[in-house]
Amino acid sequence: MCLFLPLSTQVKGPKIGVIGLSKGAEVALAMGTFLEEIAAAVCINGATSMNGAPLHFRDINIPAVPYSTEAILINEIGLMSSFNVMGDPLDSVHEVSAIPVEKAQGHILLVAGEADQSLNSKMFAEMALGRAKKFGRTNCSLLHYPRTGHMIEPPGSPTCFLSFLRVSPMPTIWGGESKPHAKAEEHLWKEVLKFFELHLGPAGNWSSTVNHLKIKRH
């Protein structure tokens, strides 16, 4: 895909930015690590190791940490939490499955909601940041937000505290509190635009996009 995107008239190029949430953040981190075309990657509330499915790309093979479905929690009103499904990020099993962020040529912005009920996204992000620093890399940064859940989306989006997954017969809890979550979305969106502009260059009238998406929340 990255080979064809620069050919599009809608892509300024030659470098590309990518943003992902949840499993998409895991994919975005892998893209930012292994694809030289990716100059900037934003990874929101995702694992920083391969989980559920391995990564096979060219001569790269990273095994996956299997999901521990027996760790699913269901509360008294029938809502599901997958917080423990990926296990403890500090467990040694994650070491061989860790995405080697120190190999990234571009810049990576890790984002974590501290009240994420889907996974321990802050700890995963801190581990990736620590790994990058261990190898002397300064192209990896972290933003984390208290009382903010999993579904951090552009401001103006309805806050999603729970929803159904195709693989689950019951709704999944995403976590967060209304006001802190909304404030986090508004702050992060501005930071994302600044991050992309810094590493990809000016890209149209972004300030009007922010104002268009911004709504007042109570």
UniProtKB/TrEMBL annotation:
Stretches assigned to the BAAT/Acyl-CoA thioester hydrolase C-terminal domain: 5-201
SUPFAM superfamilies documented for this protein: alpha/beta-Hydrolases
Coiled coil (UniProt feature): none
Biological processes per GO annotation: acyl-CoA metabolic process; fatty acid metabolic process
GO molecular function (one): fatty acyl-CoA hydrolase activity
GO cellular component: peroxisome
A Pfam family: BAAT_C
Name by which UniProt lists this protein: BAAT/Acyl-CoA thioester hydrolase C-terminal domain-containing protein
